[in-house]
Amino acid sequence: MQEIHTMQETGMESKPGEIRKDSTKIYFFVVAILALLATNVYFYIKYKNTGDRVYELTDERISMQAEIDRIEAELDRLTDENLTLSTSLKAAQDSVRTTIAALRNQLTQNNLTREQLVSAQHEINQLKQQVSKYVTEVENLRVQNEQLRSERDELKQEISSSSDRVAALEEENTDLTNKVRLASTLKVSNISINGVRERSNNKQSVETRARRIDKFQIHFTIADNPLAQVGMHDVYLRVIDPNGNLRTTDNGLFEVDGNQIQYTYKTAINFVNDGADYVIEWTDTKGFQKGTYTILLYADNTVMGQSSVVLK
Q: Per residue in 188-211, pLDDT tens?
């Protein structure tokens, strides 16, 4: 038969004190493990919450930096338009850029607290309002400039049109003046040229042989002209010899149609618009030669008439 032994029989009977002592150790061991687990859970939750907060703060900081970038981009866009800003607008622009620089410097710090971020966000909101006001003022300035440019262009167009009208009127007036001047100039109705030989007893005779001629007599009549000015008029002679040369004595000049030209001889006549005949005498100090002489008469800066004579 199987033997069954009890504790008593083996001599291994447990004492009550020892059982309580072992239970106490187990209790404290369990409590220590639970405390350790609780500590680990606490620190895990703490660090997790801290990481979440750090991530949240970083995300907000990046979002704020993006907002500042957009604000500065809008400010740069307005600056690139090269508008001439008033003193107040220039001061507003400088103030905005100073605030942007300060906020950028503040947001570069990685250890910002929630309170600091809230304060920064508040400054960004104020900055938005300030830039919005600045944009409105700049837009108003642009509208004013465009209006001024439009008014300036219209004024230029009006001035140009007025100048064109004035120029046209001046041209018409000049044409009219020239027409009146031409209409009022003296014109020869008939002209003749004779070679004259002077004889004794103050007698003269017409001569055609060059070697016997002492002077030319130019006879002419002024056509009636009620527009011509009555009174003394300078008369200029230009004598072209048979060789085609202008005969001159003192290199005198006079004006014809705005040009200065030489004349041969100068005198004056008294015009009274009565159809009177006039005589001008001219002597060639170098003597006359065979061939054709052409004589032109000028008065009032234009040609009165011309004629020729042939000497043998």
A: 989 999 999 988 787 889 999 999
88 or 299, which is more confident: 299
**Greatest extent of the chain over all pairs of C-alpha atoms, in Å:** 213
Can you give the pTM of this predicted structure?
Answer: 0.48
65 token code pair: 């930096």
Identify which has the larger pLDDT, 232 or 16: 232
With a CB cutoff of 8 Å and minimum separation 6, the contacts of 269 are 222, 232, 233, 235, 278, 299
Residue range 215-243, pLDDT digits in tens? 999 999 998 888 888 999 999 999 999 99
Give one DSSP letter per residue of the chain, joined into a string. ------HHHHT-PPPHHHHHHHHHHHHHHHHHHHHHHHHHHHHHHHHHHHHHHHHHHHHHHHHHHHHHHHHHHHHHHHHHTT----HHHHHHHHHHHHHHHHHHHHHT-TT--HHHHHHHHHHHHHHHHHHHHHHHHHHHHHHHHHHHHHHHHHHHHHHHHHHHHHHHHHHHHHHHHHHHHHHHS--EEEEEEEEEEE-GGG-EEE---GGG--EEEEEEEEPP-TTSPPEEEEEEEEEE-TTSPEE-SS--EEEETTEEEE-SEEEEEEE-SS--EEEEEE--TT---SEEEEEEEEETTEEEEEEEEEE-
Model confidence at 7, in pLDDT bands (50, 70, 90)? Answer: very low
Buried b (16+ CB within 10 A) or exposed e, 129-138: eebeebeebb
Max mean pLDDT among 62-66, 93-97, 233-237 falls in: 233-237
Strand-strand pairing, 246-247 and 302-311: unpaired
Tokens 């001046």 correspond to 170
> How far is it, in rounded angstroms, from Cα 153 to Cα 175?
32
